[in-house]
C-alpha cells in the first residue's frame, strides 16, 4: 500500500491496482501537485467543509464516495455523476480496497447561501482485506481519521477490531486535535506509524511538528511518528 500526503488532509492511497484520493484540497501550501496530474479511481470525502471537497470537481472520471448527504451535494454542485453513498459502520469494496466508514467528532455544515447539512463527519479505514473478527496478520490497513477530536472509539473499536497499521491524524489544533491529543489517539489505536495532518495550512493551525513527535514518544507507545513532506510517499 502506497500513501502520499498532498498537504492538509489530502491523501492518495494505492491498494494494488486501485487508486483512492481522500479529501482533495490542493490549495494548501504543502503541495505542488496539480489536480490534473492525478487520475484516481475513487475520491473519498470525510465531510463537506470547503478545505476537504474544494477540488472534487476536478475528478469527473472518478467515483465520489461519502455519506449520502455529501455525495448528493457534490452531484448537485460539481456535477459528479458517479457516486457511492454509504454511512457510518458500513464497509464498501472499492476495486482492490475495502473501505470502512467510522464517525469523526467534528461539524459538517456546508457553507452555501442556504443551510445544508452534510450528515455525520467521518473517517475511513482502508484495507487490502475485508475486516472480520478474526485478526489477519497479513492484511495492511490505513486509517484516515478525518477532522476529529479525540474519541474513545479509537481505543474501544477502531484499534482492536479494525486494526490499522498506520494512521493519519489531524494535529493542527483549534479545529481538530492538537499534538497532545493526536499522540494519545495514536497510542489508543496501537498503530505502527502515525502521520500528522491538517496543520500549517493557515496561521491558526500552524504547529511545530517536533512537538507532535515528542508527544507520541511521551505516551510510551510503539508508534513511530512520521512527518512527511508535501507530496511525499510512504510505503506501508
From TrEMBL:
One Pfam family from the record: Lactamase_B_3
Stretches that traverse the bilayer: none
Metallo-beta-lactamase domain sequence ranges: 7-198
Record's keyword terms, sorted: Hydrolase
Recorded GO MF terms: hydrolase activity
Keyword flag Calcium: no
Keyword NADP: no
UniProt superkingdom: Archaea
Family membership: Belongs to the UPF0173 family.
NCBIfam families (alphabetical): PRK00685.1
HAMAP family per UniProt: UPF0173 (MF_00457)
Protein name in UniProt: UPF0173 metal-dependent hydrolase NDI86_18875
Amino acid at each position: 500500500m502506497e500513501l502520499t500526503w498532498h498537504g492538509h488532509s489530502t491523501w492518495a492511497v494505492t491498494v494494488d491496482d486501485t487508486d483512492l484520493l481522500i479529501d482533495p484540497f490542493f490549495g494548501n501550501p504543502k503541495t505542488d501537485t496539480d489536480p490534473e496530474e492525478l487520475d484516481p479511481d475513487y475520491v473519498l470525502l470525510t465531510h463537506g467543509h470547503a478545505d476537504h471537497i474544494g477540488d472534487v470537481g476536478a475528478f469527473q472520471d472518478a467515483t465520489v464516495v461519502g455519506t449520502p448527504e455529501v455525495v448528493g451535494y457534490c452531484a448537485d454542485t460539481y456535477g459528479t455523476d458517479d457516486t457511492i453513498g454509504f454511512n457510518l459502520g458500513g464497509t464498501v469494496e472499492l476495486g482492490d480496497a475495502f473501505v470502512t466508514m467510522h464517525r469523526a467528532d467534528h461539524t459538517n455544515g456546508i457553507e452555501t447561501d442556504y443551510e445544508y447539512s452534510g450528515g455525520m463527519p467521518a473517517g475511513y479505514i482502508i484495507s487490502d482485506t475485508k475486516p472480520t473478527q478474526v485478526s489477519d496478520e497479513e492484511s495492511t490497513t490505513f486509517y484516515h481519521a478525518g477532522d476529529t477530536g479525540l474519541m474513545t472509539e479509537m481505543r474501544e473499536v477502531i484499534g482492536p477490531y479494525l486494526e490499522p497499521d498506520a494512521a493519519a491524524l489531524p494535529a493542527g489544533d483549534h479545529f481538530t486535535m492538537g499534538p497532545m491529543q493526536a499522540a494519545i489517539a495514536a497510542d489508543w489505536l496501537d498503530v505502527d506509524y502515525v502521520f500528522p495532518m491538517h496543520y500549517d495550512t493557515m496561521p491558526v493551525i500552524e504547529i511545530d511538528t517536533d512537538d507532535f513527535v515528542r508527544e507520541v514518544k511521551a505516551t510510551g507507545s510503539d508508534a513511530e511518528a512520521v512527518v512527511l513532506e508535501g507530496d511525499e510517499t510512504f510505503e506501508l
